[in-house]
Design brief:
11 strands; globular; seven-stranded mixed β-sheet; 122 residues; four-stranded antiparallel β-sheet; mainly beta
Length: 122
Amino acid sequence: QVQLVESGGGLVQAGGSLRLSCTASGRTFSSYSMGWFRQAPGKGRELVAVIRRSGGSTYYADSVKGRFTVSRDNAKNTVYLQMNSLKAEDTAVYYCTATERFSSSLYEYDYWGQGTQVTVST
């Protein structure tokens, strides 16, 4: 079992920045690829970014490329999502998730955090 706890969400103006953190406990953090998904009101859960176990490979949704950066610190059991140039359409609940595979599909992810709200005002 892996427990995931997100933090860092909040209210920010359009064009601003936020950094989300997700700290894991339980099984070996470095065994998992880590993903960030988001879900806006009335919409399905969508991939934002994924980072491989070692941090050597990443994947981003087209909608966030060039604005968001995913990183991890295996010594701290933590994955980060740096979000810059935020837009109103980035408003959503953001979820941290873990998988033993490197995947863009939410169905491949076994463990999920409780989510953190990000609201971008215009």
